[in-house]
Write a structure and sequence with these properties.
Low-confidence stretches: 79-83
Radius of gyration: 16 Å
Shape: globular
Number of strands: 5
Order of helices and strands: HEHEEHEHHE
């Protein structure tokens, strides 16, 4: 029995998380401060997708000595620490960027990169990772179906990769 496209993507993403050392995770969410949910949903999609390529390129150039596993994800965001919104809960899912890093990226530098691309339109959440955090992420990937990005391809005007390696020569292989 041959492997499906989804199974292959999951296997490769799991291998990237499992085989390399990831010490930090950074997530970039659209800042939503409006009052209309449909408008905010549309705006959230536009914000992230409009600067996606530029953000990845600036990150690649500005932190060329740090290995980064760059991912696009979708989630129904509930109030997170540092995440600004007036909604208690949102009734829509939104796209966001998350990336794992082999070393810490200075907060000031990351804010500068995000501001150059997105202005004041995004929030960034940072956390250090333990081996258990990474194993938990791997387990979620194993059991959950991959999100369908086809509607986002239409907004962006083309397909894009759900994840990619940045500065691969700086990836730290686990011993």
């Amino acid at each position: 029995m041959s492997e499906t496209s989804e199974e292959k993507k999951k296997r490769k993403l799991i291998a990237e998380l499992r085989d390399y050392q990831w010490l930090y995770q950074y997530s970039v969410f659209p800042r939503l401060e409006g009052t209309d949910r449909e408008e905010d949903k549309s705006r959230a999609e536009e914000i992230i997708l409009s600067g996606l390529d530029e953000f990845r390129d600036k990150l690649r150039r500005k932190v060329s000595n740090i290995g980064i596993l760059f991912e696009l994800r979708i989630m129904n965001v509930i109030l997170n620490r540092g995440f600004r919104t007036q909604y208690r809960r949102k009734n829509f899912v939104q796209i966001y960027i998350t990336f794992h890093a082999s070393e810490k990226i200075e907060e000031e530098l990351l804010d500068k990169i995000a501001e150059a691309v997105y202005g004041e339109e995004v929030n960034i959440i940072t956390r250090s990772l333990s081996e258990e955090d990474v194993l938990g992420a791997i387990e979620k990937i194993r059991i959950q179906a991959l999100h369908d990005f086809s509607s986002y391809y239409e907004i962006k005007g083309r397909k894009f990769n759900r994840y990619s390696g940045i500065n691969r020569s700086s990836f730290v292989r686990k011993g």
